[in-house]
Design goal:
heterodimer; A: mainly alpha; MetI-like fold; 2 domains; 15 helices; B: mainly alpha; 12 helices; 77% helix; 0% strand
């Protein structure tokens, strides 16, 4: 009896040590993975850091061999030069105006269309819905030529409205779809109760449906703004004078104007990245939510 | 009364739809029709042209530059789509193990490049790869016997380098989708598998991979459609040197339209791009779905 119990205890102890050994083994494996991930993350972030830190170095330090992780002589010369001697102010303003306008127009038209398609019955509803879905099939770059023709008929080439208009399709379609999905999932009880109280459709939209989905509106505003700020192809095609350029197009001009100066080139780039970086860091969770919504994952 | 409210509903609906209808009619529907119509004419960029049937398409078919553009685009897609998906999954598996603040910081390190404008990405990487002073040369010289390499001026290196930069730029998007997918897999399945003594590799093969497959298919499809439209990076890194050798499809369209003033031919190339994307996405979606149902 006691011998059997002892033997049992021994087996249990042996099992316990083995499990412990295995656990330790697993942890070691996990640790390796975690460390690899961390190293990889540092490697991934390094080019960003390197680009940023280069802008604070004087030109002779920039071209010095070796990896110097912090400037010996910290200077803002590159930024001062860029701000005083290039048209970056105008490019910034153009980017702000066009991205702001694209965002405002997209969200306004998407709220209305999303609500109508989601909640109202009217002839043509299905046709519009299919048109929106179809717009995902046509690659926007292949519309560049007809867009250019259209904008020149409007005499909008080389103007800000000409930069804005063709950008409205892609984020517009996406926003309508997302609004429709979210308006669809608002419980019908709210609607019925409000209708009995005599609320009009506009009141329903602005008092119930929109306020219940402020988070979505914020997400769409952020993602549309970032997308418009970052767009390269169309602003590049639609504009041919420096005064009307967006920052993303404009910064590819500085190089040509001042010869090779890495600190200055990168300073301009960092300034161009600043607004989107700030928006991302300030609204990290909204941005990730918006990105997942855009991929069709309701998060 | 009911009739009146029904009419009212239609009026309200159209009032709400009006901005959308105008914008879409003018900026999407009309240009789409125009693209198809133009592709059958010999019109210049601005102005009228005569109907020429399928002549533009025959010309594209025999144009060496157009086949270069198609091959370069396909080559770029091969170099970027599958690697960025696999690396994205690997990184997501690693990041998903982390918790709390650390996870947020690590995720941000991978995601931050994604929100940058392409011109900024271009500036950062031309500096990284710079022939004389770029730090990436320290990673290159051991393979070349101390020779510095002008990466974007060396034709065989051009597309791989642009694909590499593109993966660096866009990886965060894939990581984000994969993490969302991984979070949806219940931890109970893993616990049960661990109790049964399944190894990590078996757990990955039998649980993670099949359950994450719908996300993988989604990421692959999104990346494929996106990368077929490649233009910005290729244009910027080529820096107006030897553009014909590194030409991609969108670039061909722009060249025919804005340099050669051939609106009809450019529109025909646009139609081809449209068809390629439709066929590729439908095919890929069907293939991936079939694999997922196996």
């Amino acid at each position: 009896m006691t011998a059997a119990a002892e033997a049992g205890q021994e087996v249990a102890a042996a099992l316990a040590t083995r499990r412990l050994a295995r656990l330790r083994h697993l942890d070691l494996f996990g640790l390796v993975i975690t460390l690899t991930t961390l190293v990889f993350a540092v490697v991934w972030a390094f080019p960003l850091y390197w680009g940023l830190v280069t802008t604070f170095k004087p030109e002779y330090e920039v071209v010095r061999p070796g990896v110097q992780l912090w400037p010996e002589h910290f200077t803002l010369e590159a930024y001062v030069h860029v701000l005083m001697r290039t048209k970056i102010g105008i490019w910034y303003l153009n980017s702000l105006i066009t991205s702001g306008a694209v965002t405002a127009i997209v969200v306004t038209m998407a709220v209305g269309a999303g609500y109508a398609i989601s909640q109202l019955k009217f002839p043509g509803r299905r046709l519009f819905w299919w048109t929106i879905l179809a717009s995902f099939m046509i690659p926007i770059p292949s519309l560049t030529v007809p867009h250019f023709i259209l904008m020149s008929q409007f005499h909008w080439i080389n103007t800000l409205p000409g930069v804005i208009a063709p950008q409205l399709i892609a984020p517009g379609a996406l926003s309508v779809i997302i609004y429709k999905q979210f308006f669809d999932s608002v419980p019908k009880d709210f609607r019925e109760a409000a209708v009995i109280d005599g609320a009009s459709e506009f009141q329903l939209l602005f008092r119930i449906y929109l306020p219940m989905n402020w988070g979505i509106t914020t997400a769409l505003v952020i993602i549309t703004f970032i997308g418009a700020w970052n767009l390269f192809l169309w602003p590049f095609v639609a504009v041919n004078t420096e005064d009307k350029m967006n920052i993303t197009v404009g910064i590819t001009q500085v190089h040509d104007a001042f010869g090779v100066s890495y600190a200055r080139d990168l300073a301009v780039a960092m300034l161009a990245a600043l607004p989107v970086a700030i928006v991302y860091l300030a609204f990290q969770r909204r941005v990730t939510q918006a990105i997942m919504l855009s991929a069709g994952i309701k998060g | 009364m009911i009739v009146k409210s029904r009419r009212n509903e239609i009026v309200v609906a159209y009032a709400l739809m009006t901005p959308f209808i105008i914008v879409y009619g003018v900026i999407f529907v009309w240009p789409s029709i125009k693209m198809f119509e133009l592709s059958f004419t010999d019109a210049p960029l601005i102005g009228q042209g005569a109907w020429v049937g399928f002549k533009n398409f025959w010309r594209l078919q025999s144009d060496r530059l157009f086949s270069t553009a198609i091959w370069n685009t396909i080559y770029f897609v091969l170099l970027s789509v599958v690697p960025s998906t696999l690396i994205g999954l690997a990184v997501a598996l690693g990041v998903n193990r982390l918790r709390g603040r650390l996870q947020g910081v690590v995720l941000a390190a991978f995601f931050l490049p994604y929100i940058l404008p392409v011109s900024v990405v271009y500036r950062i990487w031309s500096w990284m790869f710079d022939k004389d002073f770029g730090v990436a040369q320290y990673a290159i010289t051991p393979f070349t016997g101390g020779q510095h390499v002008s990466v974007f001026r060396t034709l065989p290196l051009f597309m791989p380098a642009v694909a590499f930069v593109t993966i660096w730029w866009l990886l965060g998007f894939n990581v984000l989708l994969f993490i969302a997918g991984l979070r949806n897999i219940s931890s109970e399945i893993y616990e049960a598998a661990a109790l049964d003594g399944a190894s990590r590799w078996t757990q990955f093969r039998r649980i993670t991979w099949p359950l994450i497959w719908p996300v993988t298919a989604l990421v692959l499809t999104i990346q494929l459609i996106l990368q077929l439209k490649i233009f910005d990076q290729v244009y910027l890194f080529a820096n107006n040197v030897r553009t014909d050798a590194t030409m991609v499809m969108v670039q061909y369209i722009l060249k025919q339209a804005f340099q050669m003033n051939k609106g009809g031919l450019a529109a025909a190339a646009s139609v081809v791009l449209f068809l390629v994307i439709v066929v590729a996405s439908v095919l890929q979606f069907q293939l991936l779905r079939a694999r997922g149902e196996r």
